[in-house]
Amino acid sequence: MAHLSLKGINKIYPNGFHAVHDFDLEIEQGEFICLVGPSGCGKSTTLRMIAGLENISKGDFLINGVRANEMSPREREIAMVFQSYALYPHMSVYDNLAFGLTLQGVDDDVIEEKVTNIAKILGLTDYLDRKPRALSGGQRQRVAVGRAIIRKVGVFLMDEPLSNLDAKQRVTMRSEITDIHRKVGSTTIYVTHDQTEAMTMADRIVVMKDGYIQQVGTPYELYFNPVNMFVAGFIGEPPMNFVRSEVGGGNISVLGSEVDISHIVSDESVKHYEGKPVALGFRPEGITLGRVENSYVFEAEVELTELLGDNTNVYVTAGGNNLILKVDPHDTPRLDDKITFSVPYKNVYLFDGESELVIERK
Ligand code: ATP
Q1: Residue nearest to atom 20 of ligand 1 (CA)
Q2: Helix 137-149 crosses helix 93-103 at what angle (to 10 degrees)?
Q3: Does ligand 1 have an atom closer than 6 angstroms to the CB of 224?
Q4: How far apart, in whole angstroms, are the C-alpha atoms of residue 41 and residue 18?
């Protein structure tokens, strides 16, 4: 296991493109960190710098307190699984798992013990004689994971390892990977653009945008205390609803209603934002149909409903805005219905309309 320190890490590619800006993060031994963000935000570049596959343009990278910027990938004692995991097609699962150890000249009986053990952890015991073409996508993925973790490494890096799998396999592999992490205990950095993967697997999530870290926190912190509109909109599915407006006399005019913002932010903030743009945010699942106390109440018209089983996504318009509301499937309204819904004050976020930073709640 390893402790990693990333201090002011920057990546400027030879063509001058600045892909990662001042990336600061301390990763504890055995932690499971997910790097998330939209395509092109610099996740893979960051991972590749940690792996030693890209040089670090500026900043310090330390493994267990020792500067590692110039260490080769091998010296870093890091294992990796990538999106495209090439198994050797002519070799059995056993030989694929054993390959790295064979190259290192490890004794055959030690290899056998390790392969047997890894196969047991990964549920591959019955497939050791098979060639990769005779495996399902999920089984192949497990072999790729097994090949990476069979060597004792301090750090385990994964770049979108589940993107080639179908939805069901992804869910299974998600829990398998967290299970393996619990058993093996290596510090793990996992790159994904899928916020659900990050929310379900990570100890802490790093949300990135345009090469900058937006927020670092536990899944709980990011969901309940996002620092800005980007994180609030990125974490959570369907995403948070946002409505922009301007403060006038302590109120904002949103969704056809006048909303008194003093219910959610301090008197100083109400004063500070007078005449300024703000954005109101609430999650689709943060609403209640009908009128509820200590809430903002809105009227809306139903445009579309999607019954998902455990809930229904209701697409509505209110005061010219499109919103998504999550409701109990038994309460699914009909198309074109006029509905009333409430958003309890505790579920409402207010953001600075210019900086897009959250305004502290009272
Ligand atoms: P994705 O989810 O699409 O893989 P990502 O967040 O992993 O995206 P990176 O692959 O790290 O993004 O790329 C970050 C930015 O750096 C992108 O704008 C990309 O075009 C750019 N980039 C990547 N590699 C190079 C390179 N070798 N030279 C110049 N720019 C590059």
Answers
A1: 40
A2: 20
A3: no
A4: 11
Return the closest-CA partner of residue 73 out of 153, 12, 6: 153
Element (H, E) at 271: helix 267-272
> Does the C-beta of 40 come closer than 6 Å to ligand 1?
yes
Q: Whose CA is nearest to atom 2 of ligand 1?
A: 39
Q: How far is the CA of 40 from the centre of ligand 1 (A)?
A: 5
292, amino acid identity: V
Residue with tokens 């500067």: 67
User: Which residue matches tokens 């953001």?
Assistant: 351
Residue 158, phi then psi, degrees to nearest 5: -135, 130
8-state DSSP, 292: -
- In tens digits, the chain (362 residues) has pLDDT values of 799 999 999 999 999 999 999 999 999 999 999 999 999 999 999 999 999 999 999 999 999 999 999 999 888 988 888 766 678 999 999 999 999 899 888 999 999 999 998 898 888 999 999 999 999 888 888 898 888 878 777 899 999 888 777 787 788 878 888 888 888 888 999 999 999 999 999 999 999 999 999 999 999 999 999 999 999 999 999 999 999 999 999 999 999 999 999 999 999 999 999 999 999 999 999 999 999 999 999 999 999 999 999 999 999 999 999 999 999 999 999 999 999 999 999 999 999 999 999 999 98
Of 10, 13, 36, 195, the residue with max ligand 1 atoms within 8 A of its CB, to mutate for a pocket test, comes to 13
- Residue from 43, 55, 160, 234 whose mutation best tests the ligand 1 pocket (most atoms within 8 A of CB): 43
For residue 282, give the amino acid letter: F
d(CA 61, CA 2): 13
Whole-model pTM: value is 0.90
